């Protein structure tokens, strides 16, 4: 089971919520690739911390010897982003009042400066002396990023009802100030049990140590508004210690028990080892199983209730001060201009923003767009701006303007063409304002970065042994993305591959892109894209791998074409596991080869390999090839699944497939896996095949047994041809839906397809293509509508690609019949290819070897109306079933195959105890027809009764004097045609009385001699 650790604080019974949890561990696990210390507790970050602590202690000692003091205190500017619902006024709901925010700042200052003497005095003696003044203070910012006055509070309305850690970037994108100058503190409603999280700091990259970069865009602390500060809109038990705890993380502190048992560590010498967090306010008699002594549950980095928290230790102070002295962004906070009152000076133009518009995507021509603003108290009439690319001056612009205080002007600069591949920095700087030096340099510069992809002709090959280029990554959420790792592939020692860590990636639905160079396919008529990948699913997760093709030199999926996609089990190359997946060798890798010929002749093609995150398991990609020719030596393709059939009536079925050798080498063996409803049921290897290149063959695989009577989904995967790696796994697997149904019925049988009958009745319908609709019953003008007030029929309706839909009868017992036939009515309409087959099975549907009828083209569809316009639009068919008389497991299926907007209807399907076509009109429902009349030696009675179970019928013949000539009894009559012989009777008029539950009628019979 994948666990998200990190519970934070157990609330007292009187609080509004039952639990309070800290999201530090799962949130920073999500950022572990960016701050590797979180993934390696004893790794690089802690090594860096130890070195910097020693260095800082040495500096402090030197300062004391010289009579100076190093950073007596750190003052941190805070901006509070209040995220509330639209329409909430200040002080209402999530839109918390300023006084609540001020109470939080006051709590932070008391806690971090050890001024909470009441709580400290209650500490046990052994801990009281450890309550440390961290020398850290907090103030609300006085100026915003533009240098304008602020109270340090930003209020933003959002329609989101609540937020979780996977939405961290979306939350902070609503409002975020530069993390080098501000501690961004967010107040919002958090979903679930978590009520706060913080981003861990990073090292300053000591020489010889490699660290990732934690994203600036998400740097900050998030607190549920009900636990920020004290009083007002805060929960009753909140004293603001949630923020104290999370800001401790923000400054580099870990949970006091080290997020493990007695063997885990928070890397602080003066905090006792413990085996886990504490909740509420534990009794003084509490003893740690790790130390056999009282734990320090009053520490702010434990999970106790707010009222029981009291201290940071000197060791924790040391860690936080190292972060504030050396960690990127954190080290700038103490010197931030945000703490100073803003000033307005004369002659102060500034650059408010810089953006780059791609005016010619494929030519890599950029138009810098500059927004100027007058921040000074004098009119600005002229500004000189220098434009540079990678530090090289491109042009200096002299801009005539007329800007009053805080007025703005937007300027689109000349196009800049950058042809050199790689990352480039475009920067602008104000040189002069009003023909003299600008009086405030802080707002005079801005820069933006752009990536120019390499252009390449075919072939392109990348095994990642020497790095990522000429490919590059697009990371929209600044979190996990494609990275190079060492991973075995079974063939190359020290193999490197691309890795996407879905296992720890909380942001479900995110897509991370690996983009190719710009490809020139103008000189080729064919092209192929192939690569290898490895993936093991996590239970019930649907991570995905997609391939998109861009034709406009952009890496935007909105304008690209998707040519491949696989998700979850469909993507798997290894069994499902709850552990982080890492391939062990060649058997857990697969290949994909995709035809790019549809894009041949174009010269601005870019391939986008996209990982889709569903918080599942890890994905690896390696050995990319883009070539004008297809050269797959080992490639077995699964072309058809013949069995299980779409509908059958047995819990056991053979598995019969058609395979093709799509490669160039002969195939002697292959392995397979069979999945039913997402669970692997069978696996094995077929040897001795001798399958030549481009040859196809039918293979029987291991049968399926103990199937339940319901719809199922089978998936068959082929792999390891000749024990090697298949070059194209995209053609190695097929899925199909099927239904196990053993419903039985005698004949005669009629099906009029009333509404809802396909979900509740005798007939079974299925689309073998997974996820597509099958036959349905709909109201429509029917072949007998003149006799009925309402009619419905079965309909197969098609859209898009060509598909097949099955409508199967129950299993028919014909073992005691002498004759049998099927009559039905059909109508076909719409646009697009369409065919209708009638198939028969004698084994309950396990196989369907008998084709009884096939119609297509104009024979099937005389016109294109989407529904039968009238009763006369229907066509009638009669099929003799005499070949199946004596069989007891006969099944009939209507199989429609079509695409586009084509559709076909079937109605009034009747199984008769007759082998001859019905040449007369049907009697009315609950009626009977008498023919021929007059007659000489015999006549027939054709019944059409409503009850599908049939009715017992009595037939009595009377002469003209009222005497009974004979009486006949016919049980379970439905649609039978009975022959009555009367060769001995005299000519004349007779009366025929016919009685059943629903029928009591008298008909006149004329016998001629």
UniProtKB/TrEMBL annotation:
<comment type="similarity">
    <text>Belongs to the peptidase M43B family.</text>
</comment>
<dbReference type="GO" id="GO:0046872">
    <property type="term" value="F:metal ion binding"/>
</dbReference>
<feature type="domain" description="Peptidase M43 pregnancy-associated plasma-A">
    <location>
        <begin position="175"/>
        <end position="324"/>
    </location>
</feature>
<dbReference type="InterPro" id="IPR008754">
    <property type="entry name" value="Peptidase_M43"/>
</dbReference>
<keyword id="KW-0482">Metalloprotease</keyword>
<protein>
    <submittedName>
        <fullName>Zinc-dependent metalloproteinase lipoprotein, family</fullName>
    </submittedName>
</protein>
<keyword id="KW-0378">Hydrolase</keyword>
<keyword id="KW-0645">Protease</keyword>
<dbReference type="GO" id="GO:0008237">
    <property type="term" value="F:metallopeptidase activity"/>
</dbReference>
<dbReference type="GO" id="GO:0006508">
    <property type="term" value="P:proteolysis"/>
</dbReference>
<dbReference type="InterPro" id="IPR024079">
    <property type="entry name" value="MetalloPept_cat_dom_sf"/>
</dbReference>
<dbReference type="Pfam" id="PF05572">
    <property type="entry name" value="Peptidase_M43"/>
</dbReference>
<dbReference type="InterPro" id="IPR013783">
    <property type="entry name" value="Ig-like_fold"/>
</dbReference>
<dbReference type="InterPro" id="IPR026444">
    <property type="entry name" value="Secre_tail"/>
</dbReference>
<feature type="signal peptide">
    <location>
        <begin position="1"/>
        <end position="18"/>
    </location>
</feature>
<dbReference type="Pfam" id="PF18962">
    <property type="entry name" value="Por_Secre_tail"/>
</dbReference>
<feature type="domain" description="Secretion system C-terminal sorting">
    <location>
        <begin position="930"/>
        <end position="1007"/>
    </location>
</feature>
<keyword id="KW-0862">Zinc</keyword>
<keyword id="KW-0732">Signal</keyword>
<keyword id="KW-1015">Disulfide bond</keyword>
<keyword id="KW-0449">Lipoprotein</keyword>
<keyword id="KW-0479">Metal-binding</keyword>
């Amino acid at each position: 089971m994948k666990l998200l650790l990190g519970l934070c604080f157990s609330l007292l019974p009187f609080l509004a919520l039952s639990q309070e949890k800290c999201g530090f561990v799962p949130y920073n696990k999500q950022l572990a690739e960016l701050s590797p210390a979180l993934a390696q507790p004893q790794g690089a970050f802690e090594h860096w911390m130890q070195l910097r602590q020693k260095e800082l202690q040495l500096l402090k000692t030197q300062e004391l010897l010289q009579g100076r003091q190093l950073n007596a205190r750190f003052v941190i500017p805070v901006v509070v982003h209040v995220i509330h619902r639209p329409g909430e006024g200040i002080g209402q709901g999530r839109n918390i009042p300023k006084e609540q925010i001020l109470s939080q700042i006051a709590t932070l200052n008391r806690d971090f400066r050890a001024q909470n003497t009441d709580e400290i005095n209650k500490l046990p003696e052994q801990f009281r002396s450890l309550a440390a003044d961290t020398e850290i203070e907090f103030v609300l910012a006085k100026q915003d990023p533009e240098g304008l006055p602020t109270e340090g509070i930003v209020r933003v309305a959002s329609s989101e009802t609540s937020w979780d850690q996977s939405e961290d970037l979306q939350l902070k994108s609503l409002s975020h100030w530069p993390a080098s100058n501000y501690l961004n503190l967010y107040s919002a409603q958090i979903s679930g049990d978590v009520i706060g999280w913080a981003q861990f700091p990073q090292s300053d990259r000591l020489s010889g140590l490699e660290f990732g970069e934690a994203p600036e865009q998400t740097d900050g602390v998030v607190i549920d508004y009900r636990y920020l500060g004290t009083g007002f809109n805060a929960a009753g038990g909140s004293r603001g210690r949630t923020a104290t705890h999370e800001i401790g993380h923000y400054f580099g502190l870990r949970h006091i028990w080290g997020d493990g048992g007695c063997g885990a560590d928070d890397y602080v010498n003066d905090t006792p080892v413990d085996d886990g967090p504490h909740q509420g306010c534990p009794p003084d008699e509490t003893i740690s199983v790790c130390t056999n002594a009282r734990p320090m549950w009053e520490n702010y980095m434990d999970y106790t209730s707010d009222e029981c928290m009291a201290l940071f230790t000197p060791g924790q102070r040391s860690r936080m001060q190292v972060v504030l002295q050396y960690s990127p962004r954190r080290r700038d906070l103490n010197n931030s201009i945000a703490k100073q009152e803003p000033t307005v000076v004369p002659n102060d133009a500034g650059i408010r923003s810089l953006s780059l518009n791609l005016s010619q995507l494929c030519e890599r021509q950029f138009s810098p767009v500059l927004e100027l603003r007058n921040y000074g108290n004098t009119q600005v009439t002229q500004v000189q701006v220098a434009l540079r690319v990678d530090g090289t001056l491109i042009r200096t612009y002299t801009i005539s303007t007329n800007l009053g205080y805080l007025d703005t002007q937007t300027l689109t600069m000349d196009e800049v063409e950058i042809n050199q591949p790689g990352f480039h920095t475009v920067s602008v700087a104000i040189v002069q304002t009003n023909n003299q030096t600008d009086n405030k340099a802080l707002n005079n510069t801005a820069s933006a970065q752009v990536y120019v992809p390499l252009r390449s002709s075919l072939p392109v090959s990348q095994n990642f042994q020497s790095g990522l280029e000429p490919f590059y990554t697009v990371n929209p959420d600044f979190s996990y993305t494609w990275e190079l790792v060492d991973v075995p592939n079974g063939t190359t020692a020290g193999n490197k591959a691309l890795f996407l860590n879905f296992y720890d990636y909380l942001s479900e639905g995110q897509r991370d892109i690996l983009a190719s160079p710009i490809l020139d396919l103008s000189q080729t008529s064919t092209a192929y894209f192939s690569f290898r990948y490895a993936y093991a699913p996590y239970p019930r997760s649907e991570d995905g791998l997609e391939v998109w093709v861009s034709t406009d030199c952009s890496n935007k999926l909105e304008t690209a074409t998707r040519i491949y996609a696989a998700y979850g089990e469909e993507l798997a190359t290894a069994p499902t596991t709850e552990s982080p997946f890492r391939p062990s060798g060649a058997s857990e890798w697969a290949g994909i080869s995709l035809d790019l010929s549809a894009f041949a002749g174009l010269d601005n093609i870019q391939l986008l390999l996209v990982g889709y995150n569903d918080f599942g398991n890890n994905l690896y990609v390696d050995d990319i090839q883009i070539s004008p020719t297809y050269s797959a030596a080992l490639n077995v393709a699964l072309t058809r699944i013949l069995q299980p059939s779409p509908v059958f009536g047995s819990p056991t079925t053979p598995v019969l497939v058609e395979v093709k050798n799509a490669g160039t080498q002969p195939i002697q063996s292959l392995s397979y896996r069979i999945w039913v409803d997402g669970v692997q049921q069978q696996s094995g290897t077929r040897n001795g095949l001798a399958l030549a290149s481009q040859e196809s063959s039918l293979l029987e695989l291991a049968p399926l047994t103990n199937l339940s009577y319901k719809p199922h989904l089978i998936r068959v995967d082929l792999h390891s041809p000749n024990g090697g790696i298949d070059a194209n796994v995209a053609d190695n697997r097929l899925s199909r839906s099927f239904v196990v149904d053993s419903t039985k019925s005698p004949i005669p049988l009629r099906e009029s397809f009333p509404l809802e009958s396909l979900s509740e009745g005798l007939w079974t319908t299925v689309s073998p293509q997974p996820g597509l609709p099958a036959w349905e019953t709909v109201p429509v003008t029917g072949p007998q509508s003149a006799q009925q007030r309402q009619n419905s029929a079965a309909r197969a309706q098609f859209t898009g690609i060509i598909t097949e839909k099955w409508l199967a009868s129950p299993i028919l017992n014909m073992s005691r019949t002498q004759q049998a036939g099927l009559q039905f009515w059909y109508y076909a309409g719409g646009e697009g290819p369409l065919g209708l087959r009638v198939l028969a099975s004698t084994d309950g549907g396990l196989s369907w070897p008998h084709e009884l009828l096939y119609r297509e083209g104009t024979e099937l569809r005389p016109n294109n109306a989407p529904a039968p316009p009238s009763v006369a639009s229907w066509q009638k068919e009669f099929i003799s079933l005499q070949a199946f008389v004596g069989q007891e497991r006969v099944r009939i299926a209507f199989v429609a195959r079509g695409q586009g907007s084509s559709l076909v209807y079937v109605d009034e399907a009747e199984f008769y105890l007759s082998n001859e076509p019905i040449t007369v009109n049907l009697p009315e429902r609950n009626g009977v027809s008498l023919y021929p009349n007059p007659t000489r030696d015999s006549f027939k009675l054709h019944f059409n009764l409503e009850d599908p179970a049939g009715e017992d019928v009595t037939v009595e013949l009377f002469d003209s004097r009222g005497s009974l000539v004979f009486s006949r009894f016919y049980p379970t009559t439905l649609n039978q045609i009975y022959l009555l012989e009367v060769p001995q009777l005299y000519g004349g008029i007779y009366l025929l009385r016919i009685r059943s539950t629903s029928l009591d009628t008298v008909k006149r019979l004329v016998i001629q001699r």
